[in-house]
Amino acid sequence: MPDKGSRGKALEKNEPGRSRRTGMERRMTSSHPSSHKARIDTAQEPPASGAAICGPSTCGPRGMARRQAILTAARRLFIEKGFEKTTLSDIIAVAGGSRATLYEHFGDKEGLFRAIMEEDNAMILSGLAPAQADERVTPEAGLTAFALHLVKALLNEETTATVRILIAEGDRVPDIAEAFFRIGPESAIGRLADYLRRLSDRGDLRIDDPAAAAQAFLGMVTGNLVIRRLILPQSAPAIPDLDRYVRHAVRLFLNGARVPKTTRD
User: In which residue ranges does the UniProt entry place its DNA-binding region annotation (predicted)?
Assistant: First the structure.
């Protein structure tokens, strides 16, 4: 009877190049039933990037705690070493757990970075709606609240670190870079455009193109501040200065969009 070693050699002989298959090839064949079985049996084959099946091991309290530990470790290492130079072994050494656990939650290193980016964007977008939902809030107060939350979130140290990684590694991970714009800046522009459209519909503002106006406004309140923070990370503006800057930008914007009193009367 052949021993385990000879059986392994026979398998390798029957499947040339099996050990050299790339993650992309594995993902392309993942729809075949046998490939699902192989991935479960080996526990070393990662699922598709970012594809985690929600179950007790991933979505329960312990699973979520493990997930957050991996995210925290990966974020720190990506900042310290860069995305390209950070290995999964580095992340596991800091976070604990196993490679199989990391694969269950994130799929691979790109999926892990995507999760960090989504976490940052969720934090940024979470505070952009409340003031806009109340029709009693004036346009000036609503836009100021929107802009202050957005600017403070974008100037957050972890957020700017993520953006720096995207700038440095974007050509290597173009799908993630595109996803960043789709779920980050484009989502913020969309939310602001919806708000401006409502203000225009009820007669508070006169705006022909809400999406273009939203882009212009966000450029006014974030552009210089974010660029300065990215290039000079130790040079964040003080909160009173930030508040003054945002309120000034809001007044400039509204003076160009506000409906004249004679028109409203």
Answer: 87-106
Q: Please list the residue range(s) of the chain that carry CATH number 1.10.357.10.
A: 113-259
Q: Nearest to residue 108, comparing CAs of 198, 30, 190, 2?
A: 30
| 36 three-state secondary structure | helix
Alpha helix segments (H runs only) across the chain = 4-14, 23-28, 33-42, 56-59, 61-81, 88-95, 99-106, 109-126, 130-133, 139-154, 157-169, 174-183, 185-201, 210-231, 239-257, 261-264
209 Rama class: left (phi>0) / alpha (psi -120 to 50) / beta? beta
Between CA 162 and CA 170, with CA 77 as vertex, the angle to 5 degrees is 40
Return the beta strands (E) in the chain as ranges: none
pTM of the model: 0.67
Which residue would you say has higher pLDDT here, 121 or 87?
87
- Contact between 191 and 129 under an 8 Å Cβ cutoff? The reply is yes
Superfamily of domain 48-107: Homeodomain-like (1.10.10.60)
Contacts of 27 (CB under 8 A, 6+ apart): 47, 48, 49
Identify the residue with better confidence: 153 or 3: 153
Tally of CB atoms within 10 A around 256? 13
Domain covering 113-259 in this structure, CATH number: 1.10.357.10
